[in-house]
Structures are given as structure tokens and as C-alpha cells.
């Protein structure tokens, strides 16, 4: 089936809903991107909380509106907290999102990612090499970076969505978001987004937030990618390089709901 283009009106609607509803997002994420992820969630109008101890994580994921699990700097201790958080979220009926950072060549995180897939993520967001590896079709990328284009991972994304029941977003120059049947395509963004750390991780946090909104989860996750594509393009148009880009990107995310898309 041919991918559909995401409607700009739905991106604007989701940008506004995120700010109006301000979902509380429980983030268990990597050590590199904690602060940027929290700032991105605040810029879109959501509310971040990094509650990381395993006892507190179990309790807090039931209180939060959605959970993010990002395995970028996974440790044994963090894996315990992640299992507890997923358990708490599932028992409370709260959606959780997986960012399978650098899955493939590294055994511990790859085993862990496959294990938690059985716990029914609402969404999975990764780059092409991560989605291919998670679907069992590739060896993974170069560390946290993709070595394949997103277009090459569309079939794997569909298979992964069918196997897990999750909405799968595979990102890159073009993003593809699928429920295993219908696939939406998002264009925009800018290569500068790959020259600063944490844009993929922060997008996964906004995907988690989008999963807490009412309506079509497929369209809401695609709109989260649409929000990034639009803000990334606007920020890059004013930016001289990776130093100024993160600030301009946060401003652009904020302006999407304060000034309308
Ligand atoms: N070449 C590109 N052109 C435009 N946008 C891009 C490009 N590469 C990545 N992006 C955007 O950057 C964000 C992060 O995606 P990606 O780089 O695939 O994730 P990761 O950082 O996990 O590898 C997404 O919003 C994606 O659309
Ligand atoms: C550099 C790095 N190392 C482990 S996690 C991480 C951040 C990856 O961020 P992103 O996937 O958003 O580029
Ligand atoms: Mg990533």
C-alpha cells in the first residue's frame, strides 16, 4: 500500500492539544539527553518528570499520563526500573513508548529491547537501522546513528507494528509512521537535526506525549513527527549551525502552539 501524507491540519491540532492537555510524561531516558528532552516537552506544553529509582518508577508510571523508555545508556539497575515502570503503566492502562537506541550490535540492550517488546508498547520510534534491527532484519547502525535511510526500513516498520501492536515511527530525512496497515509520511525537518544530540530521543518523548491524547494513535504519533519536522525546518532557516540550533528549535516548538502552526 502507498504511504499517505500527514495532514498539516492534524499536526496543528496535535500541537494545540499537547499544550492544552499538558500530559505528564514519565521519562526513563539516557544520561546524554535528560535536560534537552525535558526542555522539548516543556516547549510543546507537556510536563516532564524523570523518576528513576525502581520503587518510585513503579508508582509514578501509574500517576503519569504516559511513559518513555529510552535505552541509550542502559544499565542493569536502569533495566530494573524500566521493567517496574512498564509494569506500573500497563497495570494502570497508561501508554508507553520505546526508543530502541543503538539496538542491534550490542547484546545486553538488544536482549532487553526484545524482552520488553512483549509488554505491549503503544509506540516505537527509532531511526532506520534501529527499526530494521528490532524487526530482526539488520545488524543495527553505527552507534546511535543510522547507516540506512528510513525508506529502507518501511517494510520492517510495518512488520514490527503487526508483530507488537505498536504504532511504529521510523525517522530520517523523511519519517514514516505505521500501524502495520496504513502508513503516513512526514516531510520537512533539516539535516542540522542530526548535528545536535538528542533530537531523536526528544522526538520519542513527544511521541509518548502524543500517545496520551485522544483520537487516532497513528495520526497523533505522525503529528508528533510533523511538529518536529515543522519546528526543525523553521529553526534551521534561522540557524548558523549546531550552537544556535537547539535554542531556535525550542523557540519554534513553543511558537507552534503559542502563535498557531
Ligand atoms: N536528513 C534529514 N533531513 C530532515 N530531517 C531529518 C534528517 N535526518 C533526521 N531528521 C529529523 O531529525 C529527527 C530525529 O530523527 P533521527 O535522526 O532519525 O533520529 P535519531 O537521532 O534517533 O537517529 C526527526 O524529526 C527526523 O525527521
Ligand atoms: C550519543 C548517545 N550515546 C548514548 S545515547 C546518546 C544520545 C542519542 O541521541 P539521538 O538518538 O537522539 O541522536
Ligand atoms: Mg536515537
Automatic annotation (TrEMBL):
It is an enzyme of class 2 (transferase). It comes from the Bacteria. InterPro entries: Hyethyz_kinase (IPR000417), Ribokinase-like (IPR029056). Substrate binds at residues 50, 198. Its cofactor is Mg(2+). Its EC number is 2.7.1.50. It catalyses: 5-(2-hydroxyethyl)-4-methylthiazole + ATP = 4-methyl-5-(2-phosphooxyethyl)-thiazole + ADP + H(+). GO terms for molecular function: hydroxyethylthiazole kinase activity. ATP binds at residues 125, 171. Gene3D superfamilies: 3.40.1190.20. Pathway: Cofactor biosynthesis; thiamine diphosphate biosynthesis; 4-methyl-5-(2-phosphoethyl)-thiazole from 5-(2-hydroxyethyl)-4-methylthiazole: step 1/1. SUPFAM superfamilies: Ribokinase-like (SSF53613). Keywords: ATP-binding, Kinase, Magnesium, Metal-binding, Nucleotide-binding, Thiamine biosynthesis, Transferase. Catalyzes the phosphorylation of the hydroxyl group of 4-methyl-5-beta-hydroxyethylthiazole (THZ). Belongs to the Thz kinase family. HAMAP family: Thz_kinase (MF_00228). This is Hydroxyethylthiazole kinase. It comes from Atlantibacter subterraneus.
